[in-house]
Amino acid sequence: MAPPKKLALPKPLPDGFILTDTEKKKWRLGRIIGQGGFGLIYLASLDVDRPVAADTDYVIKLEYHENGPLFSELKFYQRAAKVESRTSSQRLRKPELLYWGRSQVQKWMKGRNLDFLGIPTYWGSGLAENNNLRYRFMAMDRLGTDLQKVLDQNGGMFKKATVLQLGRELVTVLEYIHENEYVHADIKAANLMQGHRDREKVYLADYGLSFRYCPDGEHKDYKENPKKGHNGTIEYTSTDAHRGVAPSRRSDLQILGFCLLHWLCGSLPWDRVLKNPAQVQEAKTRLMDNLPDSVQQLSVSRDSGTDEVASFLLYVRNLRYDEEPNYHHLRQLLCHTVKGRPDLHLPARPAGASSSNVPDPSSKEKQKEGRGRGTPKARFVAAVCDDDDEDEEEEEEQERGRPKPAAAHHRSRPRSKKDDATEVW
Ligand SMILES: Nc1ncnc2c1ncn2[C@@H]1O[C@H](COP(=O)(O)OP(=O)(O)OP(=O)(O)O)[C@@H](O)[C@H]1O
């Protein structure tokens, strides 16, 4: 029998399957609660002796071993968002209890007096094999509904206060990621998820396209490459990415600015030409060249929030490619009198509606239409390059013999030996 195409979703592992991560922690799989282009999301638990509880706090993301996105995501979490586990002797005595230390994110928050930062925690990863198929998995925080679904139920818009609050919180998330040498490169509502227990908390998820723009403090050079143009999710991708330039801090902020504009106005000036990347690029360039008027005129009302977003984008336009943004100033530009958490309350659900994360048929349809979810159609996908090979500890041990993952050129296909040999940016 021919092996399944690795482009496809992985053949599911059975409910109750036990996975062992690189730190020898055992994870039990529960039911599947989500699926992306390449991977499956399972409920998971460290208590392997009984079925996974419906309210568990962990999920496991599973992909075929050869696929690029999970590998890139894993590298980001391992470098920037892992939690230190305590000694294994403590764990052995009481395996059902979690002896976790403080996470990297928590340490950073403490230094800044923050009580929340929207980056999910990474709990472990490893490789698995079943029926001659090889898988890669990652255990992470379980999250709730994504904001694209919330937007879809709100007529595609958020209130001004919500947009500005989200903007400020995301500037801080980006500040953390950027300080850790990474850019996200694919900020959009579909990649923002509410907390599993606390719906007022919003997390930036999906680091499958994240890019290490400043490995060991060396910023990548500005280099235009028309062959790599238009990478990213077409609606929001940066003008640098349209020119085939590797993502940087300023491109993350510009993408965020386009998202804020979309959530405020419910549409973007380039909505009608999304199938033509060159026209989208032209429209974005026009908007950036004619700030602040180009943004202010998108709204008829004076207090719509477009002034704030125009100032935000104007600041971003003036950043040099390798310049460190002033995140504090950016948060001030998005200032608003309403304090506290963004108001994301969903309209009441019809009786009997499911609260599961498995996409409903209508949202699947929207995905096919390419509405902001980064479908293959809407996404002229970013190359993800993670070109150093330091400190990969036990996982590298497990992976000896595997070619180095220099690049996942196209998110819609798995890594190949050819990718590995190619310098992406
Ligand atoms: N940590 C999580 N907790 C709960 N559900 C999640 C979590 N991560 C993802 N999901 C759910 O699983 C679905 C698939 O997520 P995944 O990140 O694999 O793919 P995607 O971003 O939708 O698509 P793509 O593979 O193209 O990036 C998401 O739409 C979401 O509903």
UniProtKB/TrEMBL annotation:
UniProt-annotated binding residues for ATP: K61
Keywords for this protein: ATP-binding, Nucleotide-binding
InterPro entries the UniProt entry points to: CK1_Ser-Thr_kinase, Kinase-like_dom_sf, Prot_kinase_dom, Protein_kinase_ATP_BS
Basic and acidic residues: compositionally biased ranges: 362-372
Annotated segments matching region Disordered: 344-425
Membrane-spanning parts: none
Comp. bias regions, Acidic residues: 385-398
Biased composition (Basic residues): 407-416
Top-rank taxon, per record: Eukaryota
Domain Protein kinase: 27-339
Entry's Gene Ontology molecular function annotations: ATP binding; protein kinase activity
PANTHER family assigned: CASEIN KINASE-RELATED (PTHR11909)
Protein name from the UniProt record: VRK serine/threonine kinase 2
Organism: Cynoglossus semilaevis (Tongue sole)
